[in-house]
Amino acid sequence: MGITGTTPTATNNTVETRPGHHVIAVLLALCAFALGYVMMELDAFTASFPAGSGTSGSSRSQSRHDQCGTVCEIRRTSRLEHFDGRDLLNRQDLKKQLEDAKSRLIDRIKIDYGEYFDKMFVSPKDGSYIPLLPYGNQSLPLLKRKLMIKVLKTQQELQKVESNVNGCDCTHLDDEFIPTRRQRKLQTGVKNSHSSDAALIESTFTKYVWATGGHSAAAGHGNLYNESYTAFMERDLKDVFGSIGIEFEGRNYAMGGTGSAPEFTMCWEEILGRDVDFFSWDFGMTDVSTSWRLFIYAYRGLLSPGRPAFYAKWSYERLKHQMRMLTELGFPVFYSDDDMEKERKELIPETTTLGTKEIEALPPYMKYFKCGGATEKGDCDNEHKYSTPCFNQREGMASWHPGYKLHALWGHSMALYLMQTLISAVDDLVSLESESHEALLSRLEAEENRHYDQLLKKDPLNEELRQNLDTKVGYNFDKLPPLDPPVDWYALFLTGKSICHTVRLPSEIRYKGFLTNSKKTGGPSVYGEETFDMGLEVEEAKADENPETTKDLQLVWDANHPQRKRQCPLVIAPDSKDYYFTQHGDGWRNFVIPNAATRAAYDYNPNVMKGIVIFVLFGCDWGNCPEYMLTAKDLCEGKKLDIKINNIPVTNLTDIGNGAILAVHENGITFPQGSTGGYNLEFHVNEPKYYTKLSSVIVF
Questions:
Q1: Is the pLDDT at 353 greater than 80, yes or no?
Q2: How many domains does the chain have?
Q3: pLDDT digits 0-9 by tens, 120-163
Q4: Where are the transmembrane segments (predicted)?
C-alpha cells in the first residue's frame, strides 16, 4: 500500500540550528504530506481502473472484478441493443437475426414490385430464388462451407474484441459476474468514466466481398453508378450480412469497352483484390468471339487468396463447356438460367396494352418496363429507361445498355440467392451445435485446405482445353520466333505468378495507393473529389519535358475527357481511362515494378518470376487513335520508342494478341532481375511530336 496521509512525527535526534533550517524542515514536512496524499489518490485511481498494475491483494482483485462486471454489463447491454437483443455468439440467435433481415429485405423489395415479387424472383417449381443456379453437385456445398467458415471466423473475431474491453474479458457473462445494485451505486464514478468506451460497439467483424468484372453494361453505363446491379445487390445485402456482424462489400469494377483479356486476366488481383469471396464474369459482348477467355479469367480468379466462388452471368449455352471443366477441377461455379430469365420477362406487364390509369396502378419498377414484347425498348426506352438525376450529363444511354429497372431485377435476384444460401449455411451450423466453435472451425478449414490441395494438383490443360484456347481466346503465339527453351504460354497465363502495375480504374491497386506507393486512398468518386493519388493532369505532364534529366514515368489523367466534364454531384461512371505518359523531349523516363507497396500487398516473390515482360497500351475508343499517339503497330514495326529493362535494350516488341505486347531482347524474352529482385524499365520517345500512352505493365 502507499504511504498514508498522516504527518510524520518528530524524532529525538538533536539537530543543530542554523539560519533557515526551520524553513527547510517545514518544506520537508510539506513534501512528505504531499507525497502521502498523491499515493493515496493513486491507490484510489488504480482501484477503479481494471488494467491497473503494481497492486495486489484480495481487495484489489475484488475491486477489479467489480469494475469489470460494470464494464461488461455496459458492453453486454450495448451489444444486445445493437443486435436486437441477440447474442452473435449464439448460433440460434444468428438464425433469428437472418430471418428478420430477410423479412426486412423482402418488404423493401416489395415496395417496388408489389404483387409481382414472386413472379420476378421466386421459382414456381420449388420456391427457390431465380435465376441463379449452381453448376454441378459440388458448387453449392462448396459455397455453403465457405459461408460457414466466414460466419465462424466472424464469431472468432467478435470473441477477440470482447475478450479485451478496457482490459476486461466480456466474452462469457453470468449473473454472478454482473454487479449488484449496491456495487453499481458505489462504482458510479467508475462507470461514468468507462461507459462511453465500453458502449462503443463494432457493428461488423469480418468482410464478405463480391467483385464484378465486366464491360460497360455491367459497369452501369447510361445509369448512375449506384444504379448498377452490383449496387442494388450491395444495398440489399448490407443489412442481411450486417445483421450477423459481417460487412458486405460490392465492388463494381467493370470497365467500358474492355474484354476479360489481357488486363483483367493478367491483373486479376490488382484490379479486383486479394480478398474476394465471390466474383463474376459479365463480358458477354466484348468476349463474344473469344468466349474461352472466360476460362483463363475464372481460373486465375478462383486461385486467388480468397478462394472465391465464380458466377458467369450470361449465355449458358455458349459457356457451359467452360463451366463444366471448371467444376470438374473442383471449383464452385454458378450461372444464370437463360430459360428462367426468359420466363420471368414474359410475366412483366405489357405497357402498350394498358391504359394510363392501369399503368399508374402498377408497382414502380413494373411501369413502362416492357413495351412491344421487349424490356426497355420502344416506348419504354429513353425517359422511362433511365432515372432523372443528371440525365443530360450521362453518356452511354445506348440501346445495348440496360436501364435501372433491369439492373434492379438482376441485383435483387443475386442478393436474394446469396441471402438464402447464407441462411442455409447458418442452418447447417445450428444443426452442428454439439460441435464446439473451435473444433468446427478447425474441421471446416481443414476440409477446405485438403480440397484446394487436391485441386492444385490437377493439371487444367487437357487436350480439349488446349484446342479451345488455340481458337477461341485471341492470342497469336505463332507470331513469335522459336524460343529456347520453349514457353508453354497457356500454362503461364493460367498458373504463372505475375505482378502487374495497371492504371485502370476502378481497381484496388489504384484506390489503395499501391500503384503510386502512396498513403492516399479512396474509391469510386465524383470527378474532382477523388482522395486517392491521381497523378498529374496531362497538360501539366506535357509541360514537364526536359531531355537532360531522367524522371519517373508519369501517371496522368485528362481534364478534357468527356467523363471528367460532367457537372453532377453523383458518381456516374468512375472507369475513366488514365495512363502512363511520355513524349518526345522528355528524355528517359523510369518505371520500377514492383515498388515497395506492391511488393508487400501482393506477396511478391522474385524467385518464382521468369522475367517475361508484357505491355498493354491505352485503348482508343473504337480504334480511333490520335495522329501522333504511338500504337501497337508503331511499336512493333518501327524505332519510334526505345525501351530498356534492367539496362538491357528491348530489340523487338511483338503483338501477341488481345492488346498484349511482348518485350524481346537479342537473347530471348526473359529479362534478368535487378539487384533488388525487380525490374527497372526506361522509355525514350525518339520521333518528334510522338507520345505514348501505357495502360499496364505485367511481369510473369
A1: yes
A2: 2
A3: 999 999 999 999 999 999 999 999 999 999 999 999 999 999 99
A4: 20-40
Query: How many helices (H) does the chain have, and how many strands (E)?
Result: 23, 21
State yes or no: pLDDT of 189 exceeds 80: no
- Domain span at 596: 497-699
158 assigned to some structural domain:
no
| Cβ atoms 672, 646 nearer than 8 A | yes
Residue 693 in any domain: the answer is yes
Chain segment 511-536, per-residue pLDDT in tens = 999 999 999 999 999 999 999 999 99
Same-domain pairing of 283 and 390: yes
At 260, which CATH number?
3.40.50.1110
310 inside domain = yes
As a dihedral over the C-alpha atoms of residue 397, residue 402, residue 408, residue 412, rounded to 10 degrees, the angle is: -150
Phi-psi map region of 189: left, alpha, beta (phi>0 left; psi -120 to 50 alpha): alpha
Select the more confidently predicted residue: 664 or 80. Answer: 664
d(C-alpha 205, C-alpha 108), whole Å: 26
- Strands 660-664 and 652-657 come out as antiparallel
- Asked if the model's pLDDT at residue 184 lies above 50, the reply is no
DSSP 8-state assignment for residue 129: B
Residue 296 lies inside a defined structural domain of this protein: yes
Model pTM score: 0.88
Contact by Cβ (8 Å): 466, 490:
yes
Q: Are residues 530 and 398 in the same domain?
A: no
62 band by pLDDT with thresholds 50, 70 and 90: low
> How far, CA to CA in Å, does 28 sit from each of 11, 20, 35, 373?
14, 13, 10, 100
Q: How far apart are CA 266 and CA 498, in angstroms?
A: 7
- Backbone torsions φ then ψ of 610, nearest 5 degrees: -90, -20
